[in-house]
Design a protein that fits this description.
- The chain is α/β, with parallel strands linked by helices and 348 residues long.
- It folds into 2 domains: 152 residues, Nucleotidyltransferase, domain 5, CATH 3.30.420.40; 165 residues, Nucleotidyltransferase, domain 5, CATH 3.30.420.40.
- Helices cover 41% and strands 18% of the residues.
- Helix 3 links the parallel strand 4 and strand 5.
- The structure holds 5'-O-[(R)-(carboxyoxy)(hydroxy)phosphoryl]adenosine and zinc ion.
């Protein structure tokens, strides 16, 4: 019988080894990804992402069943490609790290089942990783950030503000009450038929607009509890274009983007100042936003706070962050057993 375990103390596969090849597998939403991190070389050997945007674009959002079916087809392919690009064989893999929460349940189950099957057949230990934890640690693949640091996770499903005290010690300080930052970018994109996801297109079109043209609401900007709310902003954009049929789309988008960015920058800065923390990391897909990067850098540097953001490939969903987080957890003694489940809403 398989026994539940979150420590490798009683498990047979506990050979301590410093130079591990860690295979990361990510399938929490609509991207199937596989990556290999070498703990000995402290670098990524491969990082493969297979996007499903073309499949979901006609529906204006991710269709969960289609996402699961695509993962079923694509995960073995991305794993093969990750091995090939790393110049490794599956027998060279020492540890498998897989996203098991949070996300679309069908998508998570496909990735987790694949990882368990591979781990079982090849006798490789495996670890289930929390997707948000991985986003917040991804920066360390490129740059060492001293603890504690403020982490702002902004993606299609999350707008969460954390203080990271150490690997495994995450203090959630604030979150969105309704839409996530990426979600509001995608919903506003939908209002203007910009395709899915709307975020990257809005980023591009906003460069041609005036961010001060329209004063959109900045909900909770002075909130002491670090809450966020973006659903009213989406409604405000919708009302504005109804009342102003001759609107300039680039100005509307630039002003909308500025409102989101203002709130995010303000809250991250406020938390860093309140806790006297000198490093802020922004991660998740929205961290690719050029205006957010620019304003974070500008505002934080005035207060002598260091701003770090992973390269875009490590901001959006990827398996490199899963492989790396698996390594960090392995060093802390983690290993999971075969009854590990997938959780769509698990809080970190
Ligand atoms: O982290 P991610 O790849 O997947 C989730 O875990 O959700 O984030 C995807 C989100 C989408 O909402 C997308 O519109 C947004 O990130 N996004 C952007 C940009 N690039 C991606 N939002 C604003 N500006 C961008 N450049
Ligand atoms: Zn994500």
């Amino acid at each position: 019988m398989f026994k539940e375990s979150t420590s490798r103390e009683n498990l047979p596969l506990s050979a301590p080894k410093a130079n591990l090849n860690i295979l990361g597998i990510e399938s929490s939403c609509d991207d199937a990804a596989a990556s290999i991190y070498s703990s000995g070389q402290k670098k990524l050997l491969s990082n493969v992402v297979s996007s499903q945007i073309k499949v979901h674009n006609p529906f204006g959002g991710v269709v969960p069943e289609l996402a699961s079916r695509e993962h079923f087809k694509n995960i073995p392919l991305v794993v093969d490609q990750a091995l090939q690009e790393a110049g490794l064989d599956v027998d060279d893999i020492d540890l498998i790290s897989v996203t098991h929460a949070p996300g679309l349940i069908g998508s998570l189950l496909v990735g987790l089942a694949y990882a368990k099957g591979l781990a079982f057949s090849k006798n490789i230990p495996f670890i289930g990783v929390h997707h948000i934890e991985a986003h917040m640690l991804a920066i360390h693949i490129e740059k060492k950030i001293p603890f504690p640091y403020v982490a702002l996770v902004v993606s299609g499903g999350h707008t969460h503000l954390y203080v990271i005290h150490d690997v495994g010690e995450y203090e959630l300080v604030g979150a969105t009450c309704d839409d996530a930052a990426g979600e509001v970018f995608d919903k506003v994109g939908k209002i203007f038929n910009l395709g899915f996801p709307g975020g990257p297109v809005i980023d591009r079109l906003s460069k041609k607009g005036n961010p001060k043209a329209i004063s959109f609401p900045r909900a909770f900007i002075k909130d002491e509890q670090f809450r966020f709310s973006f659903s009213g902003l989406k409604t405000a954009v919708s009302y504005y274009i109804q009342k102003n049929p001759h609107y300039n789309i680039n100005d509307v988008l630039a002003s909308f983007q500025e409102a989101v960015v203002d709130v995010l920058v303000h809250k991250a800065l406020k938390l860093a100042l309140k806790r006297n923390i000198s490093n802020v990391v922004v991660c998740g897909g929205v961290a690719c936003n050029s205006r957010l990067r620019e304003r974070m850098d500008e505002v934080l540097s005035v207060h002598k706070i260091n701003f770090s953001v992973p390269t875009p490939k490590l901001c959006a969903d990827n398996a490199a962050m899963i492989a790396y987080t698996g390594w960090e957890l392995w060093k802390k003694g983690r290993q999971d057993n075969f009854d590990l489940n997938a959780f769509p809403n698990k809080v970190l």
